[in-house]
Amino acid sequence: MKIEVMKEEIRQDGRAILSSEDGFSIRMFFNNLSGKNFSGKEYRDYVRNIAFGEMGFRPGTIELYCDGKKVRTGTLPEL
Questions:
Q1: Which of 30, 39, 55, 57 could serve as a FRET partner for 19 with CA atoms 20 to 30 Å apart?
Q2: Which tens digits make up the pLDDT trace of 4-30?
Q3: What was the pLDDT predicted at 3?
Q4: Which residues are in the DUF7688 domain (predicted)?
Q5: pLDDT per residue over 15-68, tens digit each?
Q6: Quick check: is 1 in a domain?
Q7: Runs of H (alpha helix) within the chain
Q8: Looking at the domain assignment, is residue 14 inside a domain?
Q9: Alpha-carbon Rg for the chain in angstroms
Q10: Residue 20 is inside which H or E element, if any?
């Protein structure tokens, strides 16, 4: 039996910053980055310390891709 694996990526400026085939972590990170899971100071701290400080993102547009197709777009704010 062949198991289909879906590759998910978060890209910025055409470059994959995060990717996974586990089926859930990349969407969770995208929601965190786009402000869906956090707001206010908690969101700003997450973006500043995690997205910019640890993951290598910068302010601007981010895109969620599933199997090479763009499915969502978000924006990381200037802080």
A1: 39
A2: 778 999 999 999 999 999 988 999 999
A3: 66
A4: 7-77
A5: 999 999 998 899 999 999 999 998 999 999 999 999 999 999 999 999 999 999
A6: no
A7: 25-33, 40-46
A8: yes
A9: 13
A10: strand 15-20
